[in-house]
Amino acid sequence: MGSDGTSGFSALKGMISFFTLWHMDITQREMDSMETRFHLVPVVGILFGIPLMLAMAGCVLLSREIFVDLGLLAAVFCLLIVYIGSKFIHFDGLTDFGDGMIVSGQREDHIRALKDTLVGAGGIGVALTVTLTTFAIYSTWGPLTLLMLAPLTEVMVKNAMVFAASFGLPGKGMAGRQVSMTTPKSAAKGIAVSLLCGALLAFLASLLYVWLTGAALEDMLLPIAVMLVAGIVVSAIVGLIMARNANRVFGMVNGDILGATNEVCRPLVTLAMGIAFVLVI
Predict the structure, then answer these.
(1) Which pLDDT band holds residue 4 (cuts at 50, 70, 90)?
(2) Among 56, 99, 152, 279, which is disulfide-ready with 122 (CB 3.0 to 4.6 Å)?
(3) What is the tens place of the pLDDT at every residue in 132-185?
């Protein structure tokens, strides 16, 4: 526990309650902990990763029983699990980000569109583009490959959020203190947390993959390592780019930008890890 009364456990409790459907009674202590230890947010990815893993294994088994390719259905399940499981909170940030980026005018006009509660054409267009791209990439890999990719992706998109907060300028909104207290040192910690959480999910997914395919567990070590490296690199780059653009256009990184980073990163990191996986498996 820190000298200010915050702790890692309190931070995770706050993050779980804020970023997932799992409602928990939280106080200002949990909110303060979440703001000072935002590098722990990749742990939340585990709560999405395990249901994704089980859903993809179920799709593989069902596909073998009915002799039908369930790639499209698997992609739908992936999106439903993360969207509903996160209460659409990041998707909402994506639509706000789209409105703010697309609108013409000075910085004040961009900020006004970003914070507007109504969704405009820019928000709809950006959200539709990102969602369709994600769906296309997920459906391309198929449920067996998604068994390895989808769980790990949810850790990496949170790593991108850590990087966006680490290199973003704080605003005056709800996430302002969180961004101001998340530093480049936090980004390094986020990488470590992401590697640990990603390795755990990848190992569990490998056990299911081996059971479903008959592959040797030791043959999964290199693909896991390559996927982790690809995921860390791409998620970090996405987070940095999102922070840089948000700093330039809005003069800040707020909660909407962090949510948009989560969504924008998903198709890119899944594509990168998928390519890495199929090249070495």
Answers:
(1) low
(2) 99
(3) 999 999 999 999 999 999 999 999 999 999 999 999 999 887 788 899 999 999
Distance CA 120, CA 95 (A): 8
Residue 122 one-letter amino acid: G
From the DSSP assignment, how many helices (H) and strands (E) are in the chain? 11, 0
As a whole number of angstroms, the distance between CA 178 and CA 165 comes to 8
Q: Mapping DSSP to helix (H, G, I), strand (E, B) and coil, where does residue 216 land? A: coil
Q: Which string of b and e fits 162-181 if b means at least 16 CB within 10 Å?
A: bbbbbbbbbbeeebbebbee
Helix (H) or strand (E) holding 214: none
Q: What is the pTM of this model?
A: 0.95
Identity of the amino acid at 186 = S
- DSSP letter at 253 equals B
